[in-house]
Amino acid sequence: MIYFDNAATTLIKPAEVFRAVQGAMRTAAGYGRSGHRPALRAGELVYTCREEAAALFGIPEPERVVFTLNATHALNTAIHALVRPDTTVAVTGYEHNSVMRPLSALGCRTIVMHAPLFRQDEAIAAARRAVDEGATLFIVNHVSNVFGFIQPLEEIDKLLTRAGIPMILDASQSAGVLPVEAGRLRSLAAVCCPGHKALFGPQGTGILLVLSDQLREPLMTGGTGSLSEQLTQPELLPDRFESGTPNAHGIAGLCAGIRWVRTQGTRRILEHERRLIARLSEGLRALHKVEPFFGPSQSGVLSFRAGGLACEDIAGRLAERGVCVRDGLHCAPEAHRSAGTLETGTVRISVSALNSEAECAQFLEILESILRTA
User: Fold this and answer.
1) Tens digit of pLDDT for each residue in 288-319?
2) Which of 51, 190, 288, 321 lies in the 20 to 30 Å Cα band around 262?
3) Is the pTM of this model over 0.70?
4) Is the Cβ–Cβ distance between 367 and 287 less than 8 Å?
């Protein structure tokens, strides 16, 4: 099997992750609910993961690391905490439905910052226009889950810092691949990311970094194991945003995944993924009527189309040959509008730190065979 669907979730994970989950399932009980040894063990695992995540993102306070079910949960929490009826939200032209649907449900004014694919200069110009048009909150998709397009985050942060506008960062495709130095980006109010993608954690894990005290209203309230005598949600972090028993077993695996990423280094991981994507793009361009979407500001995600074949047919035939990719709109129609692929969708290849050049070569051989016999 060749697994090239890492933008959805990583299937192949470091062995340390499996061992951590198995160990936690044997030794860790309900975190923050009791004083016996299994409960205390769960608390140790959860707090250690907060420390690892804080170190990865460059923030000094582990209590600002809130655990969620996934990136969608984190994004909904941040959006509902910051968006008010009079808020004007600026979003990139590459946002996922985990941003666009909550904004639609809230009915706030939204400015879509359209910019051509892989043009960071145009993305900066669009951000300037959004500020001039009265945006009071930015939500930035750091890396497109469809095309791997990297937004010019530092330049946007400087612009928003000068204007006094907060930003929510969707790091779903960048956490674990790009250095997301949240402590240095002054406009950031929140960072949202999944645990089950490039951080190599299990599904059902996610992270919300609460970087601004403007985030006050939790999406959900309930038991936190703290201040149980009062009916209002505790104000202290992370309890304000963590109600109910957390996924301590999954968080143990996430901790192991983050440690592995920190040991490898995000710069090294990004370089590896870019080598693979460049190899794949070169091979795709050599195939008849294949259109890869490849550019200079790109991570380990690559989309393509092949003339005469529907994307779902290509992905289905690849699946029959043991190759795992994704086809369609990838829950991000806005990205396809921006790139002009809304009517057709794309086939998406997404690599990880654990994929190899040999897999890329084998994939290209299989795809060439499929296209030749189509």
Assistant:
1) 999 999 999 999 999 999 988 999 999 999 99
2) 190
3) yes
4) yes
